[in-house]
Amino acid sequence: MEKEKRSYYVNMVEAKDGKMAEVLNFNFGGHHDIAAMVERAKSLGFAKDKHAKEFVLAMRFMHHVIKKNSDNALFAEFAPQFEAFKKSVKEQLGCGCDCK
What is the pTM of this model? Predict the structure, then answer.
């Protein structure tokens, strides 16, 4: 069974001196429902809801970067620890899809 692909557009705007300036933007995709992941992550006891959002985005972005750059020496030490942490989080929350 093929997984439904989702596409997200990330746009970061800096607010400085009462003015808004676009800093960066990019497309990001995959099969995870990020909004559903954020809702489940709120149960982890973050001090603020925005921390659940930041956590989920950080996890998804880091996972994606490591996966797409697995041969990069920068991640040699960190990748196994990140995978173990991700597995622990996934055991607590699930990921909202059928991935393994």
Answer: 0.83
